[in-house]
Design a protein that fits this description.
The structure holds two protein chains of two kinds.
Chain A lengths: L1 E3 L2 E3 L3 E4 L6 H11 L3 E8 L5 H12 L3 E4 L7 H15 L3 E4 L12 H13 L3 E6 L3 H9 L6 E2 L13 H10 L6 E3 L5 H9 L4 E4 L1 H4 L4 H21 L22
Parallel strand pairs in A: 3-4, 3-10, 4-5, 6-7, 7-8, 9-10
Antiparallel strand pairs in A: 1-2
Helix pairs in contact in A: 1-9, 3-4, 7-9
Chain B lengths: L1 E4 L2 E4 L5 H7 L8 E4 L2 E3 L14 E9 L2
Parallel strand pairs in B: 1-5
Antiparallel strand pairs in B: 1-2, 3-4, 3-5
Classes of the chains: A alpha/beta, B mainly beta.
């Protein structure tokens, strides 16, 4: 079981709720993935509360825990205010903290991120920081009160998969007891399995499922890959070798010449 | 009184945030509100007086990644 801020989950997949062809397909994909935690956001309501209300009722009917985000926030003030509004609406101290630093790459503004994380942690939030794979930033986030980290493995929505395995390994090695969740950049189940094999605790993804040809089938595939990756990590994968090593015994070979 | 609500100009008669939500036909316990960049919790909307030129944000749950 994975414990996130005192809450135990058996599924190691956290799934986003955006970009699906329809709300019904989203609901089916969440169920098929086995995810117990889904990400949600807060946006301007223009139709008297009806749009948000419908979406919220659907999410509540799925029996999952929600992780609200501060997606799209570019400043500490915006992110902190959004987090406070999310806490009121969703009734949870959990917040996926995003402070975006660049419009093109959507990479985190790590300076603003640490500042916002410090403010929110002090106000009792359980902060899930969307960060880069930078080791020093990770340390600062833990210093200011984060109890877990969510490094990217590639830019949001890029589907490129792990771009810097050394950095991901380094984070895992330096923080063996901190839950580490890869958030952003995963494109295929094999990417998810790869980071799970490194010992990552969970994977958060959205686009790779929502924009797949068959989101429900892909959700199920991700669920299986993440479970397989976790099992492989626990089983102790072999290290790569430079040279071939025979698997069949070499002793007892017949002599024909 | 002129207010900026979710980025759009509105002419309203409501004097409090709670009255404004009713006037604009907003309904539901899932709404979050802010006045001039500061969060206003639901329980404080009745006593939250509005002034000409105020900026109000009304947010609701939405899909997200």
């Amino acid at each position: 079981m994975l414990e996130l801020y005192g809450h135990q989950v058996s599924s190691r997949l956290l799934l986003g709720t955006a970009l699906y062809p329809s709300p019904a397909i989203m609901a089916e994909a969440i169920t098929a993935s086995g995810a117990e935690i889904v990400t949600v956001s807060l946006r301007r309501e223009t139709s008297g509360g009806k749009t948000g209300g419908k979406f919220w009722s659907l999410i509540q009917s799925l029996g999952v825990r929600v992780l609200p985000n501060t997606a799209g926030c570019h400043s500490v003030k915006e992110a902190v205010t959004t987090a406070k509004m999310a806490r009121e609406v969703f009734g949870t101290d959990w917040i996926k903290l995003e402070v975006i630093g660049n419009h093109d790459t959507l990479q985190p503004d790590v300076f603003g991120l640490v500042e916002a994380a410090k403010i929110l942690a002090a106000e009792g939030f359980d902060v899930f920081p969307y960060t880069t794979d930078d080791l020093v930033v990770a340390g600062r986030l833990l210093d200011v009160g984060c109890k877990l980290l969510m490094p990217w493995c590639a830019p949001i929505g890029s589907a490129r998969g792990p771009q810097n395995l050394d950095a991901l390994r380094s984070l895992r090695g330096h923080f063996p007891d901190v839950p580490l969740i890869v958030d952003a950049g995963i494109g295929r189940p094999s990417h998810a399995a790869t980071v799970m094999e490194l010992g990552y605790d969970a994977v958060l993804l959205n686009t790779a499922v929502a924009k797949a040809g068959d989101p429900v089938a892909m959700a199920s595939a991700f669920g299986k890959a993440i479970e397989a990756g976790r099992q492989a990590f626990r089983a102790g994968p072999l290290e790569a070798r430079d040279m071939a090593v025979p698997s069949t015994p070499v002793i007892g070979m017949a002599a024909f010449s | 009184m002129k207010l900026t609500i979710n980025g759009c100009q509105h002419e309203v008669t409501a004097a409090t945030l709670a009255a404004l939500l009713a006037e604009l036909d907003y309904d539901g316990g899932w709404l979050a509100t802010a006045l001039n960049g500061e969060v206003v919790p639901a329980r404080e909307r009745d006593g939250c007086a509005l002034a000409d030129g105020d900026r109000i944000e009304i947010l609701a749950p939405m899909k997200g990644g």
